[in-house]
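It is worth pausing here to work through a concrete case rather than discussing structure prediction in the abstract. The textbook approach is simple: state the sequence, then state the predicted structure, then interpret. We follow exactly that order.
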Amino acid sequence: MWSESASSQFGKGGERAYLLLDVVLAVTIFAIAVTGILVAINRITETSKFYARDMQLQYGMDAMLVEARHRPLEQMAFERHDSHLEVVYRSELEALNEVNSEGEALDGLYRLKVSAVFTRGGEDEGDSAEVIVYRPEEEGK
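Step two, the predicted structure:
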Protein backbone atom coordinates (compact mmCIF):
# COMPACT_ATOMS: atom_id res chain seq x y z
CA MET A 1 0.00 0.00 0.00
CA TRP A 2 2.70 2.47 0.95
CA SER A 3 5.64 2.82 -1.26
CA GLU A 4 9.06 2.70 0.20
CA SER A 5 9.76 6.31 -0.66
CA ALA A 6 6.60 7.41 1.16
CA SER A 7 7.49 5.48 4.32
CA SER A 8 11.03 6.85 4.32
CA GLN A 9 9.65 10.37 3.98
CA PHE A 10 7.25 9.69 6.84
CA GLY A 11 10.15 8.51 8.99
CA LYS A 12 12.15 11.64 8.31
CA GLY A 13 9.15 13.83 9.05
CA GLY A 14 8.58 11.97 12.32
CA GLU A 15 12.18 12.54 13.32
CA ARG A 16 11.79 16.23 12.57
CA ALA A 17 8.68 16.30 14.74
CA TYR A 18 10.60 14.70 17.63
CA LEU A 19 13.40 17.23 17.15
CA LEU A 20 10.88 20.06 17.35
CA LEU A 21 9.37 18.50 20.49
CA ASP A 22 12.85 18.28 22.05
CA VAL A 23 13.49 21.95 21.30
CA VAL A 24 10.13 23.00 22.75
CA LEU A 25 10.78 20.95 25.90
CA ALA A 26 14.28 22.40 26.28
CA VAL A 27 12.99 25.97 25.89
CA THR A 28 10.18 25.28 28.38
CA ILE A 29 12.59 23.88 30.98
CA PHE A 30 14.95 26.81 30.42
CA ALA A 31 12.06 29.30 30.84
CA ILE A 32 10.95 27.64 34.08
CA ALA A 33 14.51 27.69 35.42
CA VAL A 34 15.01 31.36 34.52
CA THR A 35 11.66 32.26 36.11
CA GLY A 36 12.68 30.47 39.32
CA ILE A 37 16.01 32.29 39.38
CA LEU A 38 14.32 35.67 38.85
CA VAL A 39 11.84 34.99 41.66
CA ALA A 40 14.72 34.07 43.98
CA ILE A 41 16.66 37.21 43.04
CA ASN A 42 13.57 39.33 43.68
CA ARG A 43 13.15 37.81 47.16
CA ILE A 44 16.82 38.36 47.94
CA THR A 45 16.49 42.01 46.87
CA GLU A 46 13.41 42.55 49.06
CA THR A 47 15.13 40.93 52.04
CA SER A 48 18.24 43.01 51.48
CA LYS A 49 16.18 46.23 51.43
CA PHE A 50 14.43 45.18 54.65
CA TYR A 51 17.72 44.54 56.46
CA ALA A 52 19.29 47.73 55.11
CA ARG A 53 16.38 49.77 56.50
CA ASP A 54 16.57 47.89 59.78
CA MET A 55 20.29 48.67 59.99
CA GLN A 56 19.60 52.37 59.34
CA LEU A 57 17.05 52.33 62.17
CA GLN A 58 19.63 50.75 64.48
CA TYR A 59 22.20 53.40 63.52
CA GLY A 60 19.62 56.13 64.20
CA MET A 61 18.82 54.74 67.65
CA ASP A 62 22.53 54.40 68.43
CA ALA A 63 23.11 58.02 67.41
CA MET A 64 20.22 59.13 69.64
CA LEU A 65 21.68 57.21 72.59
CA VAL A 66 25.10 58.80 72.09
CA GLU A 67 23.64 62.28 71.71
CA ALA A 68 21.36 61.94 74.73
CA ARG A 69 24.18 60.62 76.94
CA HIS A 70 26.23 63.73 76.20
CA ARG A 71 23.43 66.13 77.14
CA PRO A 72 22.69 67.46 80.62
CA LEU A 73 20.16 65.39 82.60
CA GLU A 74 17.30 67.80 82.07
CA GLN A 75 17.81 67.71 78.27
CA MET A 76 18.20 63.94 77.83
CA ALA A 77 14.54 63.39 76.98
CA PHE A 78 13.84 64.71 73.49
CA GLU A 79 12.32 63.75 70.15
CA ARG A 80 13.67 63.83 66.61
CA HIS A 81 11.99 63.14 63.24
CA ASP A 82 13.99 61.54 60.40
CA SER A 83 12.22 62.59 57.20
CA HIS A 84 14.41 60.36 55.02
CA LEU A 85 13.36 57.15 56.79
CA GLU A 86 10.04 58.57 58.03
CA VAL A 87 10.88 57.57 61.59
CA VAL A 88 10.27 59.36 64.87
CA TYR A 89 12.97 58.77 67.48
CA ARG A 90 12.19 59.48 71.15
CA SER A 91 14.46 59.37 74.15
CA GLU A 92 13.08 58.91 77.66
CA LEU A 93 14.88 59.19 80.96
CA GLU A 94 13.82 57.34 84.10
CA ALA A 95 15.52 57.49 87.49
CA LEU A 96 16.38 54.08 88.92
CA ASN A 97 15.91 53.34 92.60
CA GLU A 98 18.43 50.56 93.02
CA VAL A 99 20.24 49.39 96.13
CA ASN A 100 23.53 47.54 96.43
CA SER A 101 24.08 44.26 98.26
CA GLU A 102 24.50 46.14 101.54
CA GLY A 103 21.13 47.86 101.17
CA GLU A 104 22.55 51.32 100.39
CA ALA A 105 20.78 53.40 97.75
CA LEU A 106 22.62 53.79 94.46
CA ASP A 107 22.00 57.40 93.51
CA GLY A 108 22.67 58.82 90.08
CA LEU A 109 21.51 55.81 88.03
CA TYR A 110 19.11 56.45 85.17
CA ARG A 111 17.60 54.32 82.43
CA LEU A 112 17.90 56.04 79.06
CA LYS A 113 15.54 54.50 76.52
CA VAL A 114 15.42 55.39 72.83
CA SER A 115 12.50 54.22 70.73
CA ALA A 116 11.91 54.42 66.99
CA VAL A 117 8.35 54.50 65.65
CA PHE A 118 7.72 53.97 61.94
CA THR A 119 5.11 52.66 59.53
CA ARG A 120 5.68 49.38 57.69
CA GLY A 121 3.00 47.81 55.53
CA GLY A 122 0.38 50.32 56.69
CA GLU A 123 0.88 49.47 60.38
CA ASP A 124 2.81 51.35 63.05
CA GLU A 125 5.81 49.44 64.31
CA GLY A 126 8.60 50.25 66.68
CA ASP A 127 11.93 49.24 68.07
CA SER A 128 13.82 50.37 71.14
CA ALA A 129 17.19 50.30 72.87
CA GLU A 130 18.17 51.29 76.37
CA VAL A 131 21.25 51.85 78.48
CA ILE A 132 21.91 52.58 82.13
CA VAL A 133 23.52 55.99 82.66
CA TYR A 134 25.41 56.98 85.77
CA ARG A 135 25.29 60.69 86.55
CA PRO A 136 26.32 61.38 90.11
CA GLU A 137 25.01 64.53 91.72
CA GLU A 138 27.58 67.28 91.35
CA GLU A 139 28.89 68.82 94.54
CA GLY A 140 27.86 72.39 95.17
CA LYS A 141 24.40 72.10 93.64
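Step three, interpretation. The radius of gyration is 34 Å. Residues 4-134 form one domain.
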